[in-house]
Amino acid sequence: MHQPFGDIAHQYDLLNDLLSFGIHRLWKRRLVSRLLLSQPNPKRVLDLATGTGDVAALFSRNIPAESVVPLDPCKPMIERGKKRFPHLHNWTVGSAESLSLETRSISIVTCTFGVRNFQNRKRAFEEIARVLEPGGLLGILEIHPIPPKIRYTPFRFFWTFLLPKIGMLFKKQSAYEYLRDTGAGFISSEDMIEELSYAFELQTHEKLIAGGLVSLLVFERKNESEITHE
C-alpha cells in the first residue's frame, strides 16, 4: 500500500511544491505556529505521516529536537528525511493505526496531508486519542474532494488531468494517480470533525483554498470523563 510513496520518495518535496505552488510551506508553518501558541512547551510532539520530516523540523526550531518524533510507514521516506534533517533523532517507521508509544505520553500530534492515506481511520483516531495527554492538541492539514460546481473547474482540471501528466514527466504516473484518487475519494472537513468529536473538541477550522479544498484543523483532546466510547 505504501509502495507509491516509496517510488516517489526522492521527488516528494518537489511534488508538494508543484501541487501547491509552494504554498504548503506557509500552511505548515501556520499550523505549527498555531499549535505552539497554545502549547509553547510541549513535552513531546508526534508528527504522523511525516514524509521527509519538514513539519517535524519546523517544531525543532522552537523545541528540542529530542522531543520530536517523526513517524511514517514508508521507509524510503524516512531515509530521505534523515538526510534532509540529520539533527532529528527519533525517526520511526510505523503506522498511525498501531503506535508504539505510551498512553498519554504526547502533547501535540500533527498530520499534514496524511489522514486520507490511513488504512483504518477510526483505529488511527483511537490511537491518537490514546497517546495524547488530556488537553493535548491534534493539528491536521488535509485535502478534500472538489465540489461539482463550475467555479471549481480550474482546480478540477489541474487535479484530474495535469497531475497524472506531472507523473508521466517523472515516469511515476501510477503513484501520482494514487495521490489524485485518494484526495478525490476523501471526506469533507465537516465529516472529519464529526468523526473526531467523540474524543476531541474543535479549536480551529480554517478553509484555506476556495471554500475548503484544503483545511487546517486544530483539536483539543477531551478529558477521560468526556470521551464517549462507541
Biggest β-sheet, characterized? 7 strands, mixed
Q: Tell me the radius of gyration.
A: 17 Å
Strand content: 15-25%
How many structurally independent domains?
1
* Low-confidence region ranges: none
Q: Approximately how much helix is present in the residues?
A: 40-55%
Average per-residue pLDDT, rounded, comes to 84
Write down the overall geometry. Answer: globular
N-to-C span: 28 Å
Derived from helix and strand composition plus strand pairing, the structural class reads alpha/beta
Query: Count of helices?
Result: 9
For the largest sheet, list the strands in their spatial order: 3-2-1-4-5-7-6
CATH topology-level name: Rossmann fold
Going by CATH, the architecture would be 3-Layer(aba) Sandwich
SSE ordering: HHHEHEHEEHEHHHEE
Q: Give me the count of strands.
A: 7
> Which CATH class?
Alpha Beta
CATH superfamily: Vaccinia Virus protein VP39
Description:
With about 230 residues, the protein is α/β, with parallel strands linked by helices. It has one domain (about 5-225): Vaccinia Virus protein VP39 (Rossmann fold), CATH 3.40.50.150. About 40% of the residues lie in helices and about 20% in strands. The protein has nine helices and seven strands; from the N terminus they run αααβαβαββαβαααββ. The protein has helices at about 5, 10-20, 25-40, 55-60, 75-85, 120-130, 155-170, 175-185, 190-195; strands at about 45-50, 70, 90-95, 105-110, 130-145, 200-205, 215-220. The chain has a seven-stranded mixed beta sheet with strand order 3-2-1-4-5-7-6, sandwiched between helices. Helix 7 (about 155-170) packs antiparallel against helix 8. The chain is globular, with a radius of gyration of 17 Å.
